[in-house]
Here is the input.
Amino acid sequence: MNMHPQSDPQVLTTRDGTPLKVSLAKALRREKLRSLALIAPLLIFILVTFAAPIADMLLRSVENGIVENTLPKTVNALSGWDVTSSQLPGEPVYKALYEDLKVATAEKTHTRLGSRLNYEASGMSSLFRKTGRRIKRMDEAGPFAEQFIDIDKDWGDLATWRLLKRYSPKYTPGYFLNAADAQLTADGIAMKPENERIYLLLFARTLFLSLTITLCCLLLGYPIAFLLASLPLRSANLLMILVLLPFWTSLLVRTSAWKVLLQQEGVINDFLVWIGVIGDASRLVMINNKTGTIIAMTHILLPFMILPLFSVMKTISPSYVRAAKSLGATDWTAFWRVYFPQTVPGIGAGAILVFILAIGYYITPELVGGTDGIFISNRIAYHISSSLNWGLAAALGVILLGAVLLLFYVYDKIVGIDNVKLG
Amino acid sequence: MKLKTILMAGAASAMMTSAALATDLTIVSWGGAYSNSQNEAYHKPYMAQNPDVTIINDESSAEAVAKLRAMNEAGNITWDLVDVLASDAIRLCDEGLAEEIDFDEELAPAPDGTPASEDFGDLIVADCFIPQIVYSTTFGYRTDIEAWKGKEPDDICDVFDLETFPGKRALEKRPINNMEWALLCDGVAKDDVYDVLETDEGVARALAKLDTIKDQTVWWSAGAETPQLLADGEVAIGSTYNGRLFSLIEEQKQPVKILWDAQVFDLDGWIVPAGLSDERKAAVMKYLRFATDTQRLADQAKYISYGPARKSSAPLVGKHATLGIDMAPHMPTDPANAKNTFLYNYEWWADYRDDLDAKFQAWLSK
Here is the structure.
């Protein structure tokens, strides 16, 4: 059988003899390229300002070139040394360390390495600073091991060398382990001591509080959105302004306002004491804890729930409910069986918007969260701006991003992302 | 082609004239009353003397370390001079982000000719750091609490004494200072505090002491919180910076007093970012020489109750610029206030900060 298209009478061809299929594909490809060219500016913009920083952050969470870059000879000399050995490395390693540190001190990179290693073991920062100060006075002829141990006895400590050896590879799982309350030890990966574990707890709390806040927003926002959608246009507009007004007020002002309201000597407590619901001695603690975070964040995120709900409800024709009622449904059945299912896309959109905003929130928990109402983002901010441990901050960020993507996937499976509607 | 040449020539000449006419100095500080004091004592007189200099204020000191690191990575340093805490200066110096300073070469000597390095003395805690003020972290307490039956706290350990002095406390949400105070009140001698804190048992001991007041404590992260909490009566005793308490007491006339016992001295000062062009660096150093001389440091104390870092400035401290009260008795370094002080150990905290912070935060969230 002859498969050649041109000679096959069954295949339609264009005038110049190419099969129609091929020609169509070519035209479609040209069309696609043209549309690609049209969106290219946006695509490049997103790649440069969104995808690239995220990729850079991903890389930072495992990147660890600093040890090898600062102490190249030492890392090389250490390759022959067994990390489980109970003997200190030999004189050549100390000699290499001397040569490396001499260069590093001149370039002032030794202290940078010190602060990097200090994240893994306290004392490294001052060890490198101290050694850097004394390196010029060392005898170039050696013996080096003795002189280093003379500067600081930590150079004669196996733990120091094991740490250097463990962190000499270019990439390290160290930051991710830290972010999961674990650490690298001589016998592999182990959990940190109980009194240093914090991140897993914070991740769990962030998820729990964000879900609670989303739920609170839904419970409060649904009736408001319903009211907005069913009122006549004039009063609905007025009400809408009331919903949007706090939206236009500074976040900090709103958060501080909650402080004034909720604190123990605050307006709400004063009122409750005045009407005699609670005694003066047993004023409620409503701020600087979880409650404060939930209340303040629910208030701040409420418009993000109301707006998508409202725009979906606005499109639901009142005749459906009327029809249900005329067919004998009670008010509740008409609402639950007919009206509510039609608002699910709005709930989906609102919930996902509020949840994703909540999970990364930082400033409100910091101000009203006290100790048990803070989020993982507060620790990320601390590591970015205070401790300068950007690797750990990146690892925590990556885990948070992973968690959000995972939840998004689960959400898609359960609710279906096609069911989400913003209006 | 022609257009391009014209444009380029225009741009070049514009750049040249602006460089010749004016120098912009971007100076980063903390904002609020503190920036105001620098503005009055340093910036205004300097700009009056040098009309070609314009000083641009940036209030980013709280994020200075992270921002400087980011600028350094991006290779574009937009700041000329940054006001930071001594502990941050040490970090910046360690990271190679701040310029080393030759004190005697680049700063003015005292009026009697004492070289700058001697005039600043022990306060030079890092090669990159020019101290400006001594401030202290200490406690303020309300004077109108009936349950105290007329007694007033005069010992640091009264903070931990909930029986004699019931009421809420405000403490900073980080281990620094709190751990030291806890150990001091747990019977550790002043000189041994850091040795004890270096061990796991020492940390446990300090946290156990803090446990005794944990459920009565509000944890703050911004210096303005404690004065607010004290003014609202939310807390009875709270730690903060002494300058904040000064304005709470003297400017806002709140019924609050300062507990000076075991106040922790700390330093704040300037660093010059590494990687400035020679021209910019020269302009900054000229300003620095002026702003850190004996008279200027003494002038700053007219506006805020922080002690000048030069020994030679102390006798020149006068009255408050608007309140007209003598500033000397409000200085943390005044002999009557400084009977029992605690010196913050920078080197030690640089080493143990990360470790202790993890433990402290884990303890807090329990």
Remarks:
- The radius of gyration of chain A is 32 Å.
- Chain A has a mean pLDDT of 89.
